[in-house]
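Q: I'm writing up a methods section and want to include an example of the input and output format. Could you take the sequence below and give the corresponding predicted structure tokens, formatted cleanly so I can copy it straight into the document?
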Amino acid sequence: MDTQALKQTITARLGVPVYLVEPTPIAGLYMLGTSQGVLYSDAKGDYVVQGIMLDMTRDMKNLTISGMREQRRLGLAQVAHTPIVLKARDERHRVALFLGEQDAARRQLSATLQQLQALGVSVEIYPVIDHAERAADWCSDPLLQNDPLKAYLPQTACSE
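A: Here is the clean output for your methods example:
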């Protein structure tokens, strides 16, 4: 099975980039991680199925959700920037939060982030910066100047 050929075929036919190709428990059926979600295809890309796959032999485990989680992990691993990590003392869950330069929601996050930490949810904050000259604005943002976020900022130049 040529995963690269399958990626190219599906991308050409559907106009959707394919990032991940994984075999499924069904012989000849592959899970495709795309920018539009999870799809399933045969090895040639002639047939595509969209939906949820359940593993009935393992208490109806949702294989589609498992595939989406793996796709997110792979995507986050490719992010070049190290996130600001607000670690919960007793971490039970971890979420990734992508914030843009112009996100008005940033201004209201401080209290919510502290509540999440108290509930055992660690938060990884990934700044989404459209213009390199505005990168330093992140360090002067009022959200990041409040505790506990201030401790995670670089001590010297904040240009990364």
